[in-house]
Design brief:
507 residues; alpha/beta; Rossmann fold; nine-stranded mixed β-sheet; 24 strands; 32% helix; 26% strand; elongated; disordered C terminus
């Protein structure tokens, strides 16, 4: 028998460094509806699966309710799981003794304890769940008697080297930390209800004696298969060796602007107002990666996939063909239903399980909607980007800035996290609105410092000459101070040399 009793929940066992130490008492606390009973049943099922005898002692739910709850997850509580429904003393069921003054709390508590010990002697389980402490606390009626009772239960189970999980729904005296000091470890489940969207659940290991564990909050969901826990990502735990190569877009002018391309294993941020072509820029690199035979993952927050497929097809990028080839993974992300921890888990799974080497997140505006706290968003993104970089995956992100021309404001500033920052702008010239592109940062090598005009049409992405005769392009209303003609014309021959990304070029 191993030294740890696995909970049967992969993510939670990872956080607990293998599971719960055998022969100790653990406290699982949380308000009603946070998933305590589901977690407890999975803990017993994991023991039953390896032949251990397990026991569920319930004071708050009936055996029928427990079996129905298990059946809703597709679980059958077999012969290795005994459910003991602790019934109150017969005198409590007598109509003549309904008043508490006529019945001693000492007798009630003693009867409950006697029944618990009797069933343990009979079943001799290696795993026990006691649900819940709220009823025992009510029977004890004082903190001193309650603490003595918990100590008695702890010492009794220690004789049998039984791993015990005590459930507490925090419905009475939430500030009472009696069991915290007695228990070997404490796991707390929480539920957060945002202003819009589904509730968010998270857990935290409050204490675990003599054991290193992953601290902080960890998101989790209650699914038809039970609890799914997403451990908080710590990038320092993941490091691989890889050779850094240059990833090119296939557009000669664009790659020249980037100093030859973008190093694999780095992060790129495309920044600009709505409609400037941020999605196209990152998908140009995604399409080029697929053309090289690499696998790419797209996580789309903002745009409906059908519309994105149609729009990109009109620009020469056939996402459907790339998806059908098996080299492109596309996920539509609903920010209102997805927690940041689950999103990080999805990205990690794509990189680890499917050998993805290019990750596109479009956009961080949608990601922020899943987590309004900006400081937390930056910390999540810091760990995620560092993890992806250490796995040799290239990351491309977009952020839509507020405004169209003039001063721009971004909902979240992560420019310092990205290795490369591509800035897109609108500007006015000769009575029309045009687009400008510039590379304002590249950690991994040299790049052009020029500002160039670019055009998006059915032929793809066209990069013009440097706008060196203009002043104030990034402010949106430039002043022309030259004699040359650097602006792109409608019949500009450079359009004919633009990269066209279609099915033929990707074949």
């Amino acid at each position: 028998m191993t030294q740890k009793a696995a909970t049967g929940i992969v993510g939670l066992d990872d956080i607990l460094a293998g599971g719960l130490s055998r022969g100790h008492v653990f406290l699982l606390e949380g308000e009603p509806g946070t998933g305590k009973t589901t977690l407890a049943l999975q803990f017993l099922l994991a023991g039953a699966a390896i032949g251990e005898t397990t026991l569920y002692i319930t004071l708050s739910e009936t055996e029928r309710e427990l079996r129905e709850g298990a059946a809703s997850h597709g679980w059958e509580l077999g012969e290795n799981i005994t459910i003991f429904e602790l019934t109150p003393p017969e005198s409590l069921l007598n109509a003549e003794h309904q008043q508490s003054l006529l019945y001693s709390s000492d007798l009630e508590l003693g009867e409950a304890t006697r029944q618990i010990f009797e069933v343990v002697e009979r079943v001799k389980p290696s795993r026990v769940v006691l649900d819940s402490l709220s009823e025992i606390r009510l029977l004890a009626q004082s903190s001193l008697r309650y603490r003595r009772q918990i100590l008695a239960i702890k010492h009794y189970f220690a004789r049998y080297t039984t791993t015990v999980v005590l459930l507490d729904d925090l419905t009475t005296e939430a500030l009472d930390k009696t069991v915290h000091s007695v228990a070997h470890g404490v796991i707390r489940l929480e539920e957060i209800t945002p202003g819009y969207g589904a509730e968010r659940r998270r857990l935290r290991i409050v204490k675990y004696r003599g054991q290193k564990y992953r601290g902080g909050f960890h998101d989790f969901n209650i699914t038809p298969n039970g609890l799914q826990v997403f451990p908080r990502l710590v990038a320092a735990e993941h490091r691989t060796r890889f050779s850094r190569k240059l990833a090119v877009s296939g557009n000669t002018a664009f790659d020249a602007l980037l100093g030859g391309g973008i190093d694999m294993g780095s992060s790129t941020l495309v920044l600009g107002p709505a409609g400037t072509g941020k999605s196209l820029i990152v998908l140009v690199f995604a399409a080029a990666a697929v053309a090289r035979g690499e696998k790419v993952a797209l996580f789309i927050f903002d745009e409906e996939l059908g519309l994105l497929f149609q729009r990109m097809l009109g620009l020469g990028i056939d996402l459907q063909a790339m998806q059908d080839s098996g080299n492109l993974l596309i996920e539509q992300v609903d920010a209102a239903e997805l927690s940041p921890g689950e999103f990080t888990h999805r990205v990690r799974h794509a990189v680890d399980a499917q050998q993805i080497k290019t990750v596109v997140i479009d956009s961080l505006n949608g990601y922020q909607a899943a987590m309004p706290e900006e400081n937390s968003l930056i910390l999540h993104m810091h760990e995620l980007l560092l993890y992806l970089n250490r796995q040799g995956a290239s990351t491309f992100m977009t952020v839509a800035q507020h405004g169209l021309v003039g001063d721009m404001q971004a909902p979240v500033d992560i420019t310092y996290l990205a290795d490369t920052v591509i800035l897109l702008r609108y500007f006015e010239a000769l009575g029309s609105v045009r687009r400008a592109i510039s590379i304002i940062k590249k950690r991994t090598g040299a790049h052009e410092s020029t500002i160039r005009e670019y055009r998006i049409n059915g032929r793809g992405l066209t990069i013009g000459e440097p706008l060196d005769a203009f002043q104030g392009v990034l402010r949106g209303v430039p002043i022309y101070a030259g004699e040359s003609a650097p602006l792109l014309k409608d019949d500009d021959p450079r359009d004919n040399s633009a990269v066209v990304l279609n099915k033929d070029s990707l074949a």
